[in-house]
Amino acid sequence: MSALLEVNDLVKTFGTGEAATRVLRGLDLTLNTGEMAALLGPSGSGKSTLLTILGTLMKPTSGRYQMLDHDLIAAEDRELTEFRNRHIGFVFQFHNLLPDFTALENVIFPTAVRDGRETPAARARGADLLVRMGLAERIHFPTAKLSGGQKQRVAVARALMNSPELVLADEPTGNLDRASALQVMELIGQINREEGTTFLISTHDDKIAAACQRQIVVSDGVVTG
Amino acid sequence: MLYALKIAARYLTANLAQTALLVTGVAVGVFIFIFMSALIGGLAEFILARTVGDISHITIEAEDADPALLIAPQGQVLFVAEPGQTRTATLAEAATWLPLIAGVPGVKAVSPQITGAGFLTRGAQVSQVSVSGIEPGRESAILDLDGYMVEGSARLGSGLIVLGRELADDLSLSLGQSVRLQSSNGITMVLTLSGIFETGNGSMDKARAFVSLSSARTLFAMPQGVTRIEIKLFDLNAADATALRIRALTGLDAVSWTDGAAQLMEALDAQSQTGYFLKGFALLTIVIGVASALLLSTYRRRPEIGIMRAMGAPRGFVVFVFVTQGALVGLLGGIMGAGLGYLALLPFPSREAFRPGTLPLDITQGSYGLAITLTVIGAILASILPARSAAKVDPVTAIGQ
């Protein structure tokens, strides 16, 4: 398997002077294409900060971050935004859907914002993803009328909409009941196997971690296992 | 940016009550703008109609020729003058110029006149009057004499005279009665009162007499030519330019009504400036209203903006969404306010029917298009600050809210 992304000596410090907090302390990590990895570690270990930096939503204080031959440390905001749109998908703990839109409209958002309009092709792919997520009957439902598990499945479909190489999931099942959590994880596993999408899933749940091929443990701002 | 437009529209329809309130606020501002435009414009029309509507817009008067000077001893001036005679300057070639002047674009009517002073006598009553000799058929070309008639007819003919209400009362004259008119040249005619007018202007109603041009020729011993040519224009604001044109065309000293109306022009200008201020304040209210509503909206939607940014929406996209919201609010409010303004102005009389004591609201001067355009521009400007603030939202912080 080839490396999808590689970070070296990643440092992230919040605040300055005496109030400075060093969350990442020279972290090194390589993720291979098609991997499904769990990111483990106690609260405050730097998991969320690492996901945020990998998702190009935040820049590290120092270090190196290379993905798909792009230097994502040197890139400008505009370039990072476009890169994120095309190559990275997000699944958050709290679904974070757009409340005034339907399930389908939420799913096709990343494509529509890239193309400047909602194309028939995007609608077809969005509807197909929702069907795969078991939401065929909920395609045109306003998100407010969906259950927590359904919302999270819509969020997974949205993350996959632009066929990204990498999907970052921050506690994707942390807010779901056991049945819904298993359903979401099954879908993620299925996508990983069928499409070769790389997943990095931050979790505290041992069962979810066990369902992943690789477990990455972060402790005190470095990868320890 | 079609997709940004869709999102902007969705945000506006997502909370209909809030949007309706915002659009209504803008509409009220536009309504005030239109109402003020109609009032200020109507007021200016009314004042102009009342002050210069009945006067000549361009006047050509014969220039007095200086008396011939004689060679005089040092320190003295000697000139030739006929004792007991008032010399009247004439536009001898008036008949030649009249068709030319009438053909100048913008000229509505031309009235050649012979004017002079005289005395009206009836029994022991004597009144000094200003006499205007007008061609029959052109009595209402400049002053709307027909419109001011309270008794009889404005029609002038040989041996007829038309007087103001106060003058007729002073002389105890009734229609059909005779009166002696002696001109400043000492020539006397006995004329029959054929009409009485009342303009509301004291000097006009008390000291003005209208006779036919032929009677005036006799009275002022002027077998040919006229003393004055009065010109009425379709647009009195074009008087300066048209006067210049007539001057260039004829070489006559054509004088615009504005030459002697500096104070009136200043007053109208001041009124217009006041109107601009009031309309400016109405626009400012719209801008502040839209800006504050959109600032609140962007603050409330910070998490959503964060999600959009995380999903790869560029900052420009976010700016466009909120600026489009502002533009839509401005457009809807503008159209609604303009419509309401038009409906509110409909019951008021048209500019031609303005009368003293009524509110001179001119529906044609509502500046509807301007109001909508300025409102949309104002709303767009007002939304730039909230939109820029939205674009700067940090997705990590916003999503974590």
From TrEMBL, chain A:
<dbReference type="InterPro" id="IPR015854">
    <property type="entry name" value="ABC_transpr_LolD-like"/>
</dbReference>
<keyword id="KW-0997">Cell inner membrane</keyword>
<keyword id="KW-1003">Cell membrane</keyword>
<dbReference type="InterPro" id="IPR017911">
    <property type="entry name" value="MacB-like_ATP-bd"/>
</dbReference>
<dbReference type="GO" id="GO:0005524">
    <property type="term" value="F:ATP binding"/>
</dbReference>
<keyword id="KW-0067">ATP-binding</keyword>
<dbReference type="GO" id="GO:0016887">
    <property type="term" value="F:ATP hydrolysis activity"/>
</dbReference>
<dbReference type="InterPro" id="IPR003439">
    <property type="entry name" value="ABC_transporter-like_ATP-bd"/>
</dbReference>
<protein>
    <submittedName>
        <fullName>Peptide ABC transporter ATP-binding protein</fullName>
    </submittedName>
</protein>
<dbReference type="GO" id="GO:0098796">
    <property type="term" value="C:membrane protein complex"/>
</dbReference>
<keyword id="KW-0472">Membrane</keyword>
<keyword id="KW-0547">Nucleotide-binding</keyword>
<comment type="similarity">
    <text>Belongs to the ABC transporter superfamily. Macrolide exporter (TC 3.A.1.122) family.</text>
</comment>
<dbReference type="InterPro" id="IPR003593">
    <property type="entry name" value="AAA+_ATPase"/>
</dbReference>
<dbReference type="GO" id="GO:0005886">
    <property type="term" value="C:plasma membrane"/>
</dbReference>
<dbReference type="GO" id="GO:0022857">
    <property type="term" value="F:transmembrane transporter activity"/>
</dbReference>
<dbReference type="InterPro" id="IPR027417">
    <property type="entry name" value="P-loop_NTPase"/>
</dbReference>
<dbReference type="Pfam" id="PF00005">
    <property type="entry name" value="ABC_tran"/>
</dbReference>
<dbReference type="InterPro" id="IPR017871">
    <property type="entry name" value="ABC_transporter-like_CS"/>
</dbReference>
<feature type="domain" description="ABC transporter">
    <location>
        <begin position="5"/>
        <end position="224"/>
    </location>
</feature>
<keyword id="KW-0813">Transport</keyword>
TrEMBL record, chain B:
<feature type="transmembrane region" description="Helical">
    <location>
        <begin position="365"/>
        <end position="385"/>
    </location>
</feature>
<dbReference type="GO" id="GO:0098797">
    <property type="term" value="C:plasma membrane protein complex"/>
</dbReference>
<feature type="transmembrane region" description="Helical">
    <location>
        <begin position="20"/>
        <end position="44"/>
    </location>
</feature>
<dbReference type="InterPro" id="IPR003838">
    <property type="entry name" value="ABC3_permease_C"/>
</dbReference>
<protein>
    <recommendedName>
        <fullName>ABC3 transporter permease protein domain-containing protein</fullName>
    </recommendedName>
</protein>
<dbReference type="GO" id="GO:0044874">
    <property type="term" value="P:lipoprotein localization to outer membrane"/>
</dbReference>
<dbReference type="InterPro" id="IPR025857">
    <property type="entry name" value="MacB_PCD"/>
</dbReference>
<dbReference type="Pfam" id="PF12704">
    <property type="entry name" value="MacB_PCD"/>
</dbReference>
<keyword id="KW-0812">Transmembrane</keyword>
<feature type="transmembrane region" description="Helical">
    <location>
        <begin position="276"/>
        <end position="296"/>
    </location>
</feature>
<feature type="transmembrane region" description="Helical">
    <location>
        <begin position="317"/>
        <end position="345"/>
    </location>
</feature>
<keyword id="KW-1133">Transmembrane helix</keyword>
<keyword id="KW-0472">Membrane</keyword>
<keyword id="KW-1003">Cell membrane</keyword>
<dbReference type="Pfam" id="PF02687">
    <property type="entry name" value="FtsX"/>
</dbReference>
<feature type="domain" description="MacB-like periplasmic core">
    <location>
        <begin position="19"/>
        <end position="248"/>
    </location>
</feature>
<feature type="domain" description="ABC3 transporter permease C-terminal">
    <location>
        <begin position="280"/>
        <end position="395"/>
    </location>
</feature>
<dbReference type="InterPro" id="IPR051447">
    <property type="entry name" value="Lipoprotein-release_system"/>
</dbReference>
<comment type="similarity">
    <text>Belongs to the ABC-4 integral membrane protein family. LolC/E subfamily.</text>
</comment>
